[in-house]
Design goal:
It is a single chain. Helix content is 39%, strand content 32%. It has seven helices and eight strands, in the order ααββααββαβαβαββ. α1 packs across α4. The radius of gyration is 17 Å and the shape is globular.
Length: 215
């Protein structure tokens, strides 16, 4: 993704955060985003779990509901992520990416994405996905709603959707130190199928993949 395009998303999000949480929080957001655009080095585990013909029905925690997001949900998503990121989300939906959301009353408090295809511009990554493999990414839960099992319920909903679309496997990238995400993926029977190293310098992207076939 071009540097200027990323900054176009950043400016409205920074204004949103400043109004909601104050100037210090907005400055921290700008620092994080600018820093990762200019330089990023991350190493991930590539985790994979099978999608069987008989998947359990996902059960959200009491007081929450989970479902697929539609374009009319973008204002509610914007209230969580900011108007800039919501513009990116609108582009993703228009290009066939699928978002799943968890709601508390009518408020979106968690979301995750899935796709059969990836691109730097839309997904901040490009993976050569094997046929019949869905990629899960971009998960987030608001701080007041974590440790409730929301992403587990959303992942179960993803599994049902992508299995109905013909997927046989789902993969995701998880950093080694992210123990909650590792535990969640392993609860679905995931195994490590490779590693992925991502380096970004001044907007240029380099990746090194050591991946196995999910079969």
């Amino acid at each position: 993704m071009k540097l200027l395009e990323r900054f176009q998303y950043l400016i409205p999000d920074a204004v949103f955060v400043a109004r909601k949480h104050g100037g210090r929080a907005a400055a921290q957001l700008v620092g994080r985003r600018v820093g990762t655009v200019l330089f990023l080095y991350r190493r991930y585990l590539v985790l994979c779990h099978p999608l069987s013909d008989s998947l359990p029905t996902p059960i959200p925690p009491d007081g929450y509901s989970v479902r697929r997001a539609m374009p009319q949900d973008l204002p509610a998503l914007a209230a969580l992520v900011g108007p800039g990121t919501a513009r990116l989300f609108a582009r993703r939906m228009a290009m066939g990416r699928v978002c799943f959301i968890a709601l508390k009353d009518s408020e979106v408090v968690s979301y995750t994405w899935g796709t059969f295809d990836t691109s730097w511009d839309l997904d901040y990554i490009e993976l050569p996905l094997p046929t019949g493999t869905a990629y899960y990414y971009g998960s987030f839960t608001a701080s007041d709603h974590r440790r409730q099992g929301l992403l587990t319920a959303l992942t179960g909903l993803q599994d049902q959707h992508f299995r109905a679309m013909g997927a046989r496997h789902a993969i995701g990238l998880v950093e080694r130190h992210n123990k909650p995400s590792l535990a969640m993926w392993r609860s679905f029977g995931s195994r490590q199928m490779g590693t992925f190293t991502h380096l970004r310098v001044l907007g240029w992207e380099w990746v090194r993949r050591i991946a196995l076939n999910p079969e």
